[in-house]
Amino acid sequence: MLRFKLKYLLNNKQNRLILMLTVSVSLLIILIGLFSYREYRNALDTELNTPNIELLQINLDVTNRAFREADNKAVDLSFHQAVLKYINADAEDAEIAAEPQDVLKTLATEPDIHAISVIKFKDHSVISSGYGYKASWEEAPEHAWTPWIEKMKEKPLLIKRRVYTGTDPQLSNTELLSLARPIVRNGEVAGAVLIDLDYDMLFSKLYSHLSSYQFVYNLEGELIYPKLNLPFPLTEMDKVLKDIDVSPFTHVKIEGKAYMANQTFSNVTGWRMLSLVPMEQLLKNVTTARNMMLMLSLISIAVGCSAIYYYNFAAFRPLKRINKLLTPDIAAAGHGNLYDLEPVIGKLVGDFQSKSLVADWSLPELRSKYVNDLISRSMGTQEMRTKWEHYFADWEENPLELLIISIDRHAQWAAAFVEEDQMLLKYAMNNIVLEYFEPAWRAVTTAPQKDSLAVLLQPRELEEKELKEESARLVVLLQEVLKISVSIGVGSTASGVAQAARSYDQSMHALSGRLYEGYGLVHAYPEAESKYTESVGAADEAWRQEVLHALKSSDGGTALEWVRRGTKDTRKLGIQPQKVFRSINDLLEEIMSMATTGGYPLPAELADYTRHQVTTMDLAEIEDMLCRIAVHMAGVLGAHRQSKEYLLVQNLIAYMESHLQENIGLQDIAGHINMGVSSVSTIFKEETGSTVYDYLTNLRIDKACGLLQDSGLKIADIALQVGYQNENSFIRAFRKIKSTTPGKFRESSKYPSGYADRPKPRRSGVSEDSE
Length: 771
Prior knowledge:
This protein is α+β, with helices and mostly antiparallel strands and 771 residues long. Among the domains are: 79-203, 2-Layer Sandwich (Beta-Lactamase), CATH 3.30.450; 395-528, Alpha-Beta Plaits (2-Layer Sandwich); 539-640; 644-769, Orthogonal Bundle (Arc Repressor Mutant, subunit A). It has 27 helices and 16 strands. The strands form three sheets. A six-stranded antiparallel sheet has the order 3-2-1-6-5-4. Strands 8-7-11-10-9 form a five-stranded antiparallel sheet. The radius of gyration is 38 Å and the shape is flat.
């Protein structure tokens, strides 16, 4: 029966025409889709291949430059007379090793070099810039190179990745890249020069971007970089290396996903640098277009077959009705056909896809940015209302809640993870927060600071919610799931979106209570508002000045005592946390300025310091941090006070203080120590951060202030006593530094200042601790 019906339908000329057109259109659509897909992919390969190769070459040049510099040092040492003398010595002699050890220490001063060693094969002795001469390799504190160092007899250059196994606790488990060059005497390899490079510092200079993964392999096929957080299993990477072989470019599949692989080789180390670019996102749109065209071809075939089957019964009436409904403004002529229907369907599908993508992808980001602009007050009222109506159409005009979730000890937490892991954990925390509030609340999150997450909430039902209790459970959940300790600040309820910024400020105010109350707690604004007191006066800042004075005097013990006293008084008085944060930030910035001016090394706690670092810490940990910083700075300043330049500057300052009343100049000051004016100016500027003239002027004005306060001398007489022959010149200099005239300064000094002791005059630079 079916065979009979098909034969009957195909005998109809109109049916055959419809079938021919249907098959032709479907094949054309399929061919266009496949051709477009192939051409787009080929074009994409061409456009991406060149920049990826260039990026690999840039990174390769970075590593080559570092190894070439180290290799040049190794080659120079292999021909150095002191090194050759040590290699040629027949007996063990520590005195012969003294001279080459000094050479090694001189060359090992660069930050990316851990140590330089000279290894002698004859008697298995070694000299190192780190631990000196050892008569036996096994006596060396760090000798993990012994199993492979004698391979130097066969190879002119060795580069090995290894882990430091010595006794220095600061270098424990540090990754090293060891470069070795042979020392040849009389045609035989008698020893080797070994340079240990810092692995992390070398590869931190590589340029990377988020759309590709980069790997480095050595000649033996061992993975050199990265060492952690590998995006793919090593077995999969072995397959990639086999697929790409020595070609610069190919397509590979890893765990079922397509990647573009590019590689280049180093002519210095022989290393292979490989990058993988995921193709899924790059080809997503064109794959969707190809699939849509295939779908349309199937639809056209199905509609054609249906039209043929129903032709004798309905005479294309359904098709005409569909055309009339979809294009009511165009009068349908004749029977119509599927060719007229195809573009209409394509437009509908395209519009639907476009709107779906906007809704699914853009709306969450737009909402998050809206909340961020809202709490930062970077929108006007009109813009705020317009965007609220567009982005939050499914929300209601009901009260809103806003809370801040902040990671405790954020700087310490961030130091434990690489940046990619930090982003992953914060992304996970954001998802957990949204899922946690989803059942009962409408929620939008944004990240106003690195350590915090702002959450805008609206209850789905008009009933009271115990937000503080729910926030406390969220703190426990984040600790259990992500092992992240957080504190939460909750502001008062906002009657509308216009009050959300005020609620954010209240949340931040409440969150600052973490300073006294510790970590992992929820702080509500109404409760925190009246807990703390304002500053009671200048006495609150006295401890900070005493800490700085003690550090400048290299008195670490006194600095620690004032730090502990200051934090104890702060806790006792309950000073408003934001004022405490500002005070501590000012102290740390002055310490950093002191270190920068003097060229001293910063303590580890201030290496990447930002003003928000202390806002995520409690007072006890801030005290511990300040104590560590004080000990470090007192040590480096104490060492500096023994330097020749420091003592020379102190001599100059003492000379200036004892001759203030005389008309001395730079020539006189330099002549006091029998040095040139240029040399004295340079040394003085480096030590104090001030010129000799400015420092002398400050000394004179400081002494003048004391005379104005403690004596009844005329201003002209005071000018003479501080080295000014002309009273007007003295007044101009005084006004420039003190922003007032000497007469007004004396008048204001008659009134009590409210201080128990008069503040000491401040001078420029570090050398003011000469007393």
